[in-house]
Amino acid sequence: MPQARRLFPDFSGVLTTTVRDVLDRDPSTRRRLLRDTGKALTHLTHALGEAAMNRFLQVKEILDGAVGGPTAPVGAFHGAFWRELTRDEFMTFELLGSPIVTVGDGDGSTIIKALRGQAPFGTDLGTPEATMPRMPAGGLDPVPDEQISVIAAWIDDSCPAEDEQPLRRTAPLDE
């Protein structure tokens, strides 16, 4: 919420003034004012959504970003396994008979090793003892270290499930 206050310090005042203006205007001006108010609310929702996003959703967004977005096809044998999993399912998910997460041990977790190209991953990087390519495979850019650290920290913290629900992101209103 501090981020939202910094971005929209007098938002409630603007909203109150806009509502008063809407009630006092002709229909075409009223539509324009309502549209502009909707845009302002959309921007506020985006800012609050970023601040309120729980860490598991952030993990999923990082993984989606690594493969080209939330709807990008993933050709690896495992596909985009994370997209439909709940936090609990993600924590216990296994690939090739091994759990991808070792709760409390981010660096020791299979998913972190896969993202960093550490054995048994990294055949494309020349990692000794590697038997599989780094994730994401297929010539995609590696996940930035800062983002891998976000996932590792979440795992180190025992994959907490925040009670806070993120605000739904909305598309901007059409002009």
Structural summary, described in words:
The protein has 175 residues and is mostly helical. It folds into two domains: 2-52; 55-156, no CATH class. Helices cover 47% and strands 2% of the residues. A two-stranded antiparallel sheet has the order 1-2. Strand 1 and strand 2 (98-99) form a beta hairpin. The two termini are 28 Å apart.
Number of domains: 2
Q: How would a crystallographer describe the biggest sheet?
A: 2 strands, antiparallel
Spatial order of strands in the largest sheet: 1-2
Count of helical stretches: 7
Cα separation of the termini: 28 Å
* Oligomeric state of the chains in view: single chain
- What is the SS-derived class? mainly alpha
Number of strands: 2
Write down the overall mean pLDDT.
Answer: 77
